[in-house]
Specification:
Blueprint: H1 2-17, E1 21-34, E2 39-52, E3 57-63, E4 68-69, H2 72-82, E5 90-97, E6 109-121, E7 124-137, E8 140-150, E9 169-180
Antiparallel strand pairs: 1-2, 1-9, 2-3, 2-4, 3-5, 5-6, 6-7, 7-8, 8-9
Length: 183
Amino acid sequence: MKNLIIIIVSLLFTVAASGQKYITKTGYIRFFSEAPLEKIEAHNRTVNAALDATTGDFVFRVLIKSFTFEKALMQDHFNENYLESDKYPNATFLGKVTNIGEVKSTRDGEYPVMVDGKLTIHGVTKSITVKGIFTVSKNSLLANAKFTVYLPDYKIDIPGAVVNNISKNIEITVEATLNKADF
């Protein structure tokens, strides 16, 4: 785990030290689960992200305990039983915007993007490809994406007693306003 944190910090600094760079510490991730008996929703507004607009390198780091729920008991179960946030404190994404050449970071506008990379949740890393939108405006870039995570892929077990309360498919929404970094 310590090695993963060192790699992420190194990537954030590498991205920040090269090319046109954008960073944030206030990105937003929402996850939503709708099952027959219950809807579960959580929000995290302290997501770290960095983008090198020249190479397309894109990284995210999410502190699991920073997700907030409407019900405190849901938050406790999420951290203790499902994501085991003491053992796996972060989720990360290390990837690349594959069509970064089509994004004009000096021209305001909306640009569709494809992002390929490795998503690590609950200690399990999987390759993913996500469609998104970059909106360029002055010295910032708004990144938006929505995708689905299948819990068994990340070895997140749902006990039989609550199997009708939690969907195995979780909808993830990402919104991050990355500001041009001055280094």
